[in-house]
């Protein structure tokens, strides 16, 4: 009888605990968001694959696509830590860095595009400690006008960001893959 009573009590306690924790969500409250802001910012990204101090390094490539013979071979995956600068000049003031990865998504060099995930972090000035997150296709070979990539998030002053970046190639060396790109970001955030 004593064992039956203990078993019954344990079973009741277990059911109460399970019932209490069966839900994975909490209460939903209305967000007290401030009015949405729009920030426009221009900077340059320097992507260097060549030389003694590259800022983009190939970390994988497909064996069937020219792999190590092409600076931007189809299926190649790169890790990057590119400086963000105020201007396109080599010694322009650095205001942050773009860290992440991109993969070459084109078989033909004339149609070269990459798919990129990059966190564009600001390390000085008004946006110090903030960043813009990019996850988008970037059609690099499109020389006509500007191309556009998506902003999918951010942190710091750009928390909950969305928007787009218009990219214009300032300079590119198709032999080495080195490039200087102008980024004009339109960031919607709270």
UniProtKB/TrEMBL annotation:
Signal sequence range: 1-19
GO CC annotations, alphabetized: apoplast
Keyword Signal applies: yes
The entry's keywords: Apoplast, Secreted, Signal
Cellular localisation: Secreted, Extracellular space, Apoplast
Purpose of the protein: Dirigent proteins impart stereoselectivity on the phenoxy radical-coupling reaction, yielding optically active lignans from two molecules of coniferyl alcohol in the biosynthesis of lignans, flavonolignans, and alkaloids and thus plays a central role in plant secondary metabolism.
Subunit structure: Homodimer.
Family label: Belongs to the plant dirigent protein family.
PANTHER family, per the entry: NUCLEOPORIN-RELATED
Name of this chain's protein: Dirigent protein
